[in-house]
């Protein structure tokens, strides 16, 4: 995944926390989350740790060199003699020449490093999705609160009018009760909307560390379109090639293959080259008298080990590894099918989402026309307070539904890129331009 361009995150975080008036958009929220979110920091550390697996695997094929040293003080008892000391210093080298376990370990180390990188990339894409969801949820919660308060104001206004009309005898007590019930319901909805907004803002702050009250909103009448979306088949093919979920599962399959090779290799011999150099010195009287109190020597040789029987453990391990390989194949196929389903769901969310946005925009226009007509009808006496309240509620509901459709469209666009493995900062910038 492409790394985002640095835009002074330290200054961004500091100014956002110190000055609530500083507004931030989706891109800035993502930047902040990459520096603030503990889960993403954990994934980064895991990636760095995983990169060492390749180094550790390669070390299995390289020579091992060791140094040994000893000193011994000896006191002869029978027959009695003088004390003497023996000192020894040696260097040993061992180089695997034929060892299937070491070679499998080398390959598995490379796979582990690749898996760690893929998991980190996947966590980066998931962070984009999580931040976008928290961002859009906050915006929607603000919209819902605004709609709820507008509805409450309408009921409050109608309640005052109903009470006044009842006092002068031009309306029944039923109108007053209806308006009061609507006002009470709107009050309860406002309390619920305030609680929901607080939770959504807190979720965004937990991810980014930014002041959620400083969030930027969508542009006025954003032109959301799926004209350049492309076909479902093209997106499915792209996902088969680039999906991080599929790449991860493919690596698991490769790892299972290496485990099977390693298990089978335990039937084979191992061959290694051994070389050494030693320096020995002794103060024993006989060694000194013979002039052999100090000796030096070197050695070079080959060693072979061949397993003959291990109680059936090796055959059992081969059977186990073969079964795990079959499991990995089935898991990969299941991941392919799930990925295709995810692509289809997100693709429909974008293609149908754009149409839904247009339909909701038209519905909002119609709801506004209905509200204006109902107000006029009430003024001339052909519509009641209840008719006007219903029209007001329909209009506010249309505002909320349109906002929901827009956020769902943008979320689906990001989810589609994630399913296809192409969710990078360019896609985020594409969505961010609507703010």
Automatic annotation (TrEMBL):
Q: Which SUPFAM superfamilies match?
A: Outer membrane efflux proteins (OEP)
Q: What is its main location?
A: membrane
Signal sequence, start to end = 1-23
**Which UniProt keywords are given for this protein, alphabetically ordered?**
Cell outer membrane, Coiled coil, Membrane, Signal, Transmembrane, Transmembrane beta strand, Transport
Show the Pfam families listed in the entry: OEP
Q: Where in the cell is it found?
A: Cell outer membrane
Where in the sequence does UniProt note compositional bias of the Polar residues kind? 272-285
Where are the residues of the annotated region Disordered? 272-294
As recorded in UniProt, coiled-coil segments are 318-345
Domain of life of the native organism = Bacteria
* PANTHER family according to UniProt: OUTER MEMBRANE PROTEIN TOLC
Q: By its UniProt entry, which NCBIfam families does this protein fall under?
A: type_I_sec_TolC
Name the record gives this protein: TolC family outer membrane protein
* Gene source species: Vogesella margarita
């Amino acid at each position: 995944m492409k790394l985002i361009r640095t835009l002074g995150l330290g200054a961004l975080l500091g100014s956002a926390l110190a000055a609530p008036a500083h507004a931030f958009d989706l891109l800035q929220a993502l930047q902040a989350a990459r520096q603030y979110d503990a889960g993403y920091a954990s994934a980064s550390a895991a990636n760095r740790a995983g990169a060492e697996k390749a180094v550790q695997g390669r070390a299995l094929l390289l020579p091992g060199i060791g140094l040994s040293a000893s000193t011994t003080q000896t006191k002869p008892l029978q027959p009695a003699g003088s004390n003497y000391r023996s000192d020894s210093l040696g260097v040993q080298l061992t180089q695997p020449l034929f060892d299937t376990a070491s070679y499998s370990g080398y390959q598995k180390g490379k796979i582990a490093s690749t898996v760690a990188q893929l998991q980190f990339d996947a966590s980066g894409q998931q962070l984009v999705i999580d931040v976008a969801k928290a961002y859009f949820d906050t915006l929607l919660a603000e919209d819902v609160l605004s709609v709820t308060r507008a509805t409450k104001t309408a009921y409050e206004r109608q309640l005052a009018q109903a009470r006044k009309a009842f006092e002068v005898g031009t309306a029944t007590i039923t109108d007053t009760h209806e308006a009061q019930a609507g006002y009470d319901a709107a009050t309860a909805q406002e309390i619920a909307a305030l609680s929901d907004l607080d939770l959504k803002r807190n979720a965004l702050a937990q991810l980014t560390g930014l002041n959620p009250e400083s969030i930027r909103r969508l542009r006025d009448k954003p032109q959301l379109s799926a004209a350049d979306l492309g076909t479902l088949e093209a997106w499915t093919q792209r996902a088969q090639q680039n999906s991080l979920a599929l790449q991860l599962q493919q690596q698991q399959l490769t790892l299972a293959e290496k485990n099977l090779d390693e298990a089978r290799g335990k039937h084979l011999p191992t061959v290694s080259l051994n070389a050494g150099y030693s320096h020995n010195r002794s103060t024993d009287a006989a060694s000194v008298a013979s002039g052999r109190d100090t000796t030096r020597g070197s050695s070079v040789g080959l060693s072979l080990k061949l397993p003959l029987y291990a109680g059936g453990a090796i055959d059992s391990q081969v059977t186990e590894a073969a079964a795990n390989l079959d499991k990995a194949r089935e898991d990969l196929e299941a991941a392919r099918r799930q990925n295709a389903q995810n692509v289809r769901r997100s693709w429909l969310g974008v293609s149908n989402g754009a149409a839904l946005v247009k339909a909701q925009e038209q519905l909002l226009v119609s709801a506004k026309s209905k509200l204006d007509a109902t107000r006029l009808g009430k003024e001339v006496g052909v519509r009641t307070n209840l008719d006007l309240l219903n029209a007001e509620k329909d209009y506010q509901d249309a505002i909320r539904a349109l906002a929901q459709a827009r956020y769902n469209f943008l979320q689906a666009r990001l989810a589609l890129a994630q399913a296809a493995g192409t969710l990078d900062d360019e896609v985020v910038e594409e969505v961010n331009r609507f703010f």
